[in-house]
């Protein structure tokens, strides 16, 4: 994917003059970076509903720009960071052009090494009209982002990927760039089409077809079970994992990419956040069970960014059970800074509570000792 330039928002909340001029990536797909420096000085500067505009960048022969809402795009998204992708006009300046078909997605730049690099190809094709926007109102809660690894030295970087469908804009009439690897797409199709599948799992009433050789190659646990005959038979029943979690587990095994919770809409609603954390905790335990160490680390990194008072009890219990030392330490650091629990109990005693108590009991304790 071609580089489509950088927009720099300085500590004064304005677009840096050196990044104002438009930039053309010269390809049908490209990504633009929005760098926000001095976040703490600008976080409360624009009120809810007001935005900072990026520079113009060209992808697929069309002009685009981003809107960055530090305090949310509207009252429903207050307390969140919102971003949007907007079609400015055609490269020829034609504002009467018909709707443009394109795919887009946003990510924090430090996420991209573990987010699904081909995920944009699965995004729904959207109709973009001039000055209309593709809005991600709840990109991330500010309180979560401010405690996450995304914010470094009071700065963070958002990446916007754009693929213009049907674009053909290189000088010789064809896009001659070497495309990114599509191996994960082929393996995903293998999983979806079930072609050559030789094992079936029934997970709480939902069936999944898979390939023994792929499972054995990716998981030492599956390999041991297959070689010992544990997974023999027409259908293997699994009752202690939710079907959507097992589906995500298979997705990772076949594509080596971080699965994303399935939602009806492209944009998550704030109310679904707790459900996603519960799903992520179950996926972490499944990754630990089948010794998928990379997936386990991916889950932990996402959970670190999701530690707050209403979730820390659930997270530390799973972290203790799944032997996730760094995640457990992050939970203890949060408890130390947001409650007085560690003034009454030692760290070892809190860890023992996490091992032996239910999350509901821990939640009651945390509420009683909340700062």
TrEMBL record:
It holds the Pfam family BACK_BPM_SPOP. InterPro entries: BACK_BPM_SPOP, BPM1-6, BTB/POZ_dom, MATH/TRAF_dom, SKP1/BTB/POZ_sf, TRAF-like. Residues 197-262 form the BTB domain. Pathway: Protein modification; protein ubiquitination. It comes from the Eukaryota. GO terms for biological process: protein ubiquitination. Transmembrane segments: none annotated. Coiled coil: none annotated. Residues 29-162 form the MATH domain. PANTHER family: BTB/POZ AND MATH DOMAIN-CONTAINING PROTEIN 1, OS10G0429651 PROTEIN. Belongs to the Tdpoz family. This is Uncharacterized protein.
């Amino acid at each position: 994917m071609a580089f489509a330039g950088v927009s720099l928002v300085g500590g004064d909340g304005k677009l840096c003059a050196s990044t104002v001029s438009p930039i053309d990536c010269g390809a049908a797909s490209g990504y633009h970076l929005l760098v926000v420096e001095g976040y703490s000085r600008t976080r409360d500067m624009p009120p809810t509903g007001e935005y900072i505009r990026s520079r113009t960048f060209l992808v697929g022969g069309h002009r685009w720009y981003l809107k960055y809402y530090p305090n949310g795009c509207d009252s429903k998204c207050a307390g969140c960071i919102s971003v949007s992708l907007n079609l400015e006009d055609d490269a020829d300046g034609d504002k009467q052009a018909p709707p443009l078909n394109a795919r887009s997605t946003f990510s924090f730049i430090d996420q991209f090494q573990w987010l699904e690099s081909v995920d944009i190809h699965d995004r729904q094709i959207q109709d973009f009209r001039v000055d209309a926007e593709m809005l991600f109102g709840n990109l991330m809660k500010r309180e979560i982002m401010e405690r996450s690894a995304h914010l470094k030295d009071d700065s963070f970087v958002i990446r916007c990927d754009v693929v213009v469908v049907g674009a053909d804009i290189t000088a010789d009439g064809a896009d001659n760039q070497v495309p990114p690897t599509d191996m994960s797409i082929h393996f995903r199709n293998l999983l979806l089409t079930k072609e050559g599948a030789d094992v079936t799992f029934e997970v709480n009433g939902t069936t999944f077809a898979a390939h023994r050789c792929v499972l054995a190659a990716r998981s030492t646990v599956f390999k041991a079970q297959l070689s010992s005959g544990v997974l023999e038979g027409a259908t293997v029943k699994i009752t202690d994992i939710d079907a959507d979690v097992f589906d995500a587990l298979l997705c990772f095994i076949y594509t080596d990419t971080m699965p994303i919770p399935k939602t009806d809409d492209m944009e998550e609603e704030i109310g679904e956040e707790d459900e996603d954390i519960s799903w992520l905790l179950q996926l972490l335990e499944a990754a630990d069970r089948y010794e998928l160490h990379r997936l386990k680390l991916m889950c932990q990194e996402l959970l670190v960014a999701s530690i707050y008072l209403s979730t820390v009890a659930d997270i530390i219990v799973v972290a203790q059970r799944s032997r996730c030392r760094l995640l457990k330490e992050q939970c203890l650091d949060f408890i130390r800074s947001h409650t007085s629990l560690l003034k009454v109990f030692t760290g070892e005693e809190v860890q023992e509570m996490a091992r032996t108590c239910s999350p509901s009991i821990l939640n009651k304790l945390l509420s009683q000792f909340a700062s």
